[in-house]
Amino acid sequence: QVQLAESGGGLVQAGGSLRLSCVASGITSNPYTMTWHRATAGKRELVARISNGLRTDYADSVKGRFTISGDNAKKTVYLQMTSLKPEDTGVYFCNVGIHWGQGIQVTVSS
């Protein structure tokens, strides 16, 4: 059974940083693409994607502030978030193929 476990969320002041981690268990092959999504104020959006451990893509709203990285050997994907803004507040989800984590809360106070 595939499980994705997110960690690293929490409460931070605007301008601060957090690093999210997502460990994929039960996946027998190295995942080609891993992504982070977030649900904020009634909408859900793709935040960042890493493919083949190299190619990265970001939502315009986080470019220059967030960095996605992965460790295929550990089947882990990270999201380093800096210069956080109150509008980054939301539930962040890790995704691999059809599998989703349960989500982790990130709250940025002004």
Write structural notes for this entry.
The protein is built from no helices and eleven strands. With 110 residues, it is mainly β. The radius of gyration is 13 Å and the shape is globular. 31% of the residues are buried.
Secondary structure elements and pairings:
Elements: E1 3-7, E2 10-13, E3 18-25, E4 33-40, E5 43-51, E6 55-58, E7 66-71, E8 76-81, E9 90-96, E10 99-100, E11 104-109
Sum up the structure in keywords:
110 residues, seven-stranded mixed β-sheet, four-stranded antiparallel β-sheet, 0% helix
| Head-to-tail CA distance between termini | 40 Å
Q: Output the number of helix runs.
A: 0
Mean of pLDDT: 93
Poorly predicted runs are none
Q: What is the strand tally?
A: 11
Radius of gyration: 13 Å
**What gross morphology would you assign?**
globular
The main sheet comes to:
7 strands, mixed
How much of the sequence is in beta strands? Answer: over 45%
Q: Please state the structural category.
A: mainly beta
Quick overview:
The chain is mainly β.
